[in-house]
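Sample intake sheet
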Amino acid sequence: MRRKNIGKMIVLGILTPAAVVAVVVMFVYAVQEPPKQAASVISPAETISVPPQKQDPSNTVTVPIDSGAFSVSAWQLVLVNSESKMPDSFQPQITEAFGVEMDERIVDPYTALYTQALDDGISLWISSAYRSPEKQQELFEREIEQNLRQGLSEPEAEQKAETAVQRPYYSEHNTGLAIDFNGVTDDFKHDDAYEWLLDHAEEYGFVLRYPEGKEDITGIMYEPWHFRYVGPENAIRMNELDLCLEEYIEYLKLHPQEASELST
């Protein structure tokens, strides 16, 4: 140890005063300046792979349609199916238009869709839109009776009925946001109007609600005539991702960062 200390003293003795000052300055700078790290770049794929954080329900904010409507709690994304009853907080704003009743918030979008369809030589008419819970109950019981006449037991008849007609408050038609087109028949899938809707309905905020191949998710058989208003931004994104409404809502919950980006 003494040899090392003596060596250091000899070196310092040889250095000029200016050199000593320079060494001291460099030492202080090295101590104060934090080590530089390479900037990390996060790709979109890496961002999506991050597990979602649990959200506090009290922090959920309903986004009005004018600002994007990518909030899962937005009115146009209300989920109503055999397992999800229409929330008590959802109040349809029913008005008359085109010879039927519908939510007044979708009148303007539908009018624009209808007008463009006419300009393109496409004929559309509404077979069914809003239904009262009482009317829904009537249709559900009628479907059960039809199944009973086919020889099904009562539980079987009721179960089958739910794949075609929902119970009151479990049907999208109770929201006023759903529209059945041109006679409610399977043949509609061969109609030019159906192809036009598949190509253009999203521009006005409407999507095919019960697409073919999604029956296990929606709980409803393929209905080419049944379209649902979700807003243009949501409709376009749903079609891009090939998601039905049930899947899309889960997607937004798992990707809140994308919902935030798309709503700006």
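Comment: The chain has a mean pLDDT of 79. Residues 78 and 233 are 15 Å apart (CA to CA).
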